[in-house]
Structures are given as structure tokens and as C-alpha cells.
Structure prediction request, 264 residues.
Amino acid sequence: MKWDVIIIGGGAAGLFCAMEAGRRGRTVLVVEHNDEVGRKILISGFGYRVARQFNLKIIPPAPALVPLTLNAQDLAVFTPLSGVSIPAVVRCEGAEFAESILLTHRGMSGPAILQISSYWSRGKTLSVELLPGKNAHEMLAKMRESDAELATLLGFHIPKRFAQTWCDLYAPSKPLRGYSETEIGVIAERLHNWQVTPVGTEGFQKAEVTKGGLDTGELSSKTMEARRVPGLYFIGEVVDVTGQLGGYNFQWAWASGFAAGQYV
Ligand SMILES: Cc1cc2nc3c(=O)[nH]c(=O)nc-3n(C[C@H](O)[C@H](O)[C@H](O)COP(=O)(O)OP(=O)(O)OC[C@H]3O[C@@H](n4cnc5c(N)ncnc54)[C@H](O)[C@@H]3O)c2cc1C
Prediction:
């Protein structure tokens, strides 16, 4: 049998493209190497191989929306807190996310970390604001004459066990009136800008998406056809389009599949 359209991969993008092309009366073959179609993110690299065959530009693919790992020293400190969730603002490379961080056995996860992982690369440091929406310096300065311990005060705003561990590391807890003004300034700055340097990610196994992929400049934004290879289309995850958490990646897969389906 002769097919009008051959689609490699029956994922979100491929199936949407197949439906749309079929609706237009095109005969479509979907080639899926799994027993089931429509499972999540099972990219195999085949799309990149096809792109390379035609000398199309590829931005190096890497896992994104993925937990980040910590070095052995940091893990020794934070692993006992595995499962603790901390509200924070996490910043890296000009991006920032006000969500929560989840401490894990391998490092950090949770929405703030998954989001920032799309901007992080090896060697980069995250800036973590631990008292989001509060002026740490003002808060500590107001309590300067207090007998309350720093860890106790912080425990009203962040999980107590984390507050204690953080103080053990950076500001051995004592009554607030025991700190000098300079020390209060240093602690406030650290609470505002706690520097964490992950050593890696948990990889494609744990990633929700891939960042990088086929350079969008190679494609018509209307049809998804490769500008330099008539008849060859790229849709979904294989293209260098990465959405944040919240359904945007499925949206891209469906929308790009639908767009191509109108032209194949
Ligand atoms: C755990 C998890 C949670 C997620 N949650 C969300 C979410 O909540 N919201 C959101 O927007 N996105 C989410 N995503 C991302 C979303 O699943 C992907 O963006 C989307 O599935 C991409 O669609 P796609 O069709 O391009 O690729 P895929 O869904 O990966 O489909 C590709 C298909 O191609 C097949 N295939 C690959 N190579 C070959 C080959 N050589 N021959 C034949 N078949 C092949 C694969 O088996 C697969 O079925 C999540 C991903 C994961 C892993």
C-alpha cells in the first residue's frame, strides 16, 4: 500500500498530526516502536538522526523539568530531610520561579527546581531566596534584642527541621541578641541569596521534557516542514521548544502536530 504521510512515533504530536491529516482524507501510517501508542515522552533520538542526515541544525538536547542532584557533602547534610518541602524563589540565568523546593535522596526536586532546571547547566549556581516576600534583614533587625533563637524564628517561616539544619551550616543558632549587626547582615543576605550548586540532573529517565533539539530556524513556523527538505516535517518534543510546567509541552506537541497535519 502507498501512504500519503508516514509519521514516526505515535506520541502526543504524532497522533494529533495523524488525526488531522486523516481528517483531510490523507492516508497515514504511524510507525510506533512500542506496543502501545500515546505513552509519555519516549523519544529515542531517531528524529535527531534524520535531522543530522539532512544537515539540519540541532541544539544539543538535554533533560529539562528534571530533579537536580547534589554533591556527596551536601547530600550528607540534606538527605535526612528528604521529603521536606520549602517555599522559595529560585533564580538562575535570569529566570526565577516562586514555588516550592522538595529535598530528595539525590538532591532537589519540586516545582521550583523542575522549572529552573530548564535554565540550569553544569557549573551554574542557583540562588535560593528562603523567605519569599519577606525582607530578611528587616525581620532580623526588628528582633535584634530578642532572646529567641534564630532557628526558632526561622521555623515560623520555613520547615523547622530545615531551619535547624540551615542554621547548623551557616549561622550556628543562638539568641538573636547574641549576633552582631554585621552577622545579622550576613545571615539576612544568605537567607535572601542562598547559593546552591547542583552537580547534575537525574537525567532523561526522570525528565519531563527535553530542552534543545531541532533548531526552530530550520522549520516553517506555519507548516513545520523543514525549509531545506521539502516533504520532511518535525513536530513535538524533537523540536527545540521547551515549555514550563503546566501542560505547555503537551500543548506544543498537539499544536505542532495539528499544524503539520494541515499540510502533509
Ligand atoms: C513523567 C512525565 C510527565 C509529564 N507531564 C507533563 C504534563 O503534565 N504536561 C505537559 O505538557 N507535558 C508533560 N510531559 C511532557 C509530554 O509528555 C511531552 O512533551 C509530549 O509527550 C511530547 O509529545 P511527542 O509526541 O513529541 O513525543 P512523545 O510523547 O515522546 O512520543 C514519541 C513517540 O515516538 C515513539 N518513537 C520514538 N522513536 C521511534 C522510532 N524510531 N520508531 C517508532 N516510534 C518511535 C515513542 O515510542 C513515542 O510513542 C510529561 C512527560 C513525562 C515523562
Notes: The chain has a mean pLDDT of 93. The pocket of flavin-adenine dinucleotide is lined by residues 8-14, 31-34, 39-44, 46, 208-209, 236-237, 247-250, 253 (CB under 6 Å).
